[in-house]
Amino acid sequence: MFDRTLQPLQKRVLAPPAAWLATRGVSADTVTLVGFAVGLAAVPLLASGYYIAALAVILANRTLDGLDGALARQTQPTDRGAFLDIALDFVFYALVPFGFALADPAANALSAATLLLAFIGTGSSFLAFAAVAGRLGLSSVSYPTKGIYYLGGLTEGAETIAVFVAMCLWPTAFPFLAFGFAGLCALTTVTRWRWGWRVFGASSSSCARAQASTAIKIKKLETEGEPTS
Questions:
Q1: CB contact at 8 A, 40 and 57
Q2: How far is CA 52 from CA 45, 56, 166, in A?
Q3: Is the pTM of this model over 0.90?
Q4: For residue range 171-193, what is the model confidence (pLDDT) as tens digits?
Q5: What is the gyration radius of the CA atoms in the chain, in angstroms?
């Protein structure tokens, strides 16, 4: 929900370090892989109860995730980079509830499993929409620089990270936070299903007119501000 608003600020903040890395020949893919390696450390830290250290790792991962995109835009965006970025992001998001489940299975396992189920809904609806939009040659009005069609919504990256921060600061509240965010993710999934049903209705006949009609529907919904959760 807030990603589109925060995107300009993120670009301004990350542009200087991205330029510094670019002049030294560091690739965006390298930053992506390093960020994921850093993010993996969240699991043992959470499982061991080192929640503040885990929070630092989570924030470092997200910073590097933004930095790889800024670096790609200053050098040369690639399809491989876009694939790596989104594929590793979804795994990272699953690592955090998994770590909390390991920390206290009796208290956290059910809520963690529920949140992971909700992540499956948001992730699959996001990727399914992107796959069909890509086949039709469509691009997002709200996120034109993304490597794939980026479908925004109620539970985007900013909201997810805010919840992860809250979980690390108040670990005993994890079940409440996980169940609550899972509910918001469920709304996200249902709304994305509805949006895909609406905008792809014209694409059953694979012709240019159908593609144009679908593109118009998407742009209309985005510019009118219909929730894309």
A1: no
A2: 9, 6, 11
A3: no
A4: 999 999 999 999 999 998 998 88
A5: 18
